[in-house]
Specification:
344 residues; mainly alpha; elongated
Length: 344
Amino acid sequence: MPSKKIVRKSAPKPMPRKAVKKDARTEIPAAGAPIKINRVKTPWFSMERMTIYTYWFIILFFVGATFYILGRGQEFFSKPQNANNVEVVDVSAPVQAAANDYLTSGKGKLLSGDASGAIYDLSAAIKANPHSAEALVFRGEAFMQTGDAASAMADFNRAIELSPVSAVAYYDRAILSARAEDYPSAFADINNALSAFEQSQSNNILSLSDIYSKRAQFNLWAKNWDAAVADYTAAIANGSDNPANFAGRAEANTALGNYAPATEDYLSAIRLISEQITSAHSVAERETMSRNAMAYFEKSAALRVQLKDLEGARTDLQSATTIANALGDKEQVDRLQALAQGIQ
């Protein structure tokens, strides 16, 4: 019986299973089993590392940029304001503009006779610009108008500290001292005003004739007759057309016994008044000028009597009487007529 060949069939190969991603959270090792840690080696260059490096680069860039900006900011603030490519903004310009506006307004009010309003505006100008000698001078003059001599003196003193060549500050302070009969101080300041004017002739408020005229007046009050004549002459020579300068020189010459030149000066003063009276700004101003002319005619008449010019004296008194009639001053008319009748 033929033997049967036994063929062994090999077991079928198992089908490959798909890899199933296990959730590490669900795999719990058996108790006491060692925990196997799989270390995954990451290559030196990988997308993961590249991403981390990118983040760190961005962070470091912004940190560096921040310090750079802070450093540049400190450098900017430590530089002078006129450094290259830096626009200089003058923040004091609006303040200075306000000071100028208040100064202009204050001067206008002072000239119009509003002393209180002038003090208010000029005080604002000084607050905006404490170094304005001009504002201090004008406020001092406003204080003088209100009779506040102490405040006026303080302003003039401060103005002179700020501007030692301010002729008008010395001039005004001299007037204040003369009113207080402090003639040594008055003469010292009027001389300083003259010196300051010669050093800085850009002053448009005063003229040289103004200073000579004021010093002449001080000399007249102090009875320095010769000095008064010299100063009045200097004022007239420097272009003064103020009748008071001729009348002042006439008074000083009268004290010296120089009657003839004194008479001429009174007549010169009257001539100037006749030329200027038509341009007077008010009725009150015209009346004041007319009364001055009347007084000068009377003084001229008295000098003519001393010179034995009786006819000239009567003519002067008649002219004075005519002015008194025009003013409607009956008392002066009667008095002048009596003086004319007394001349024999």
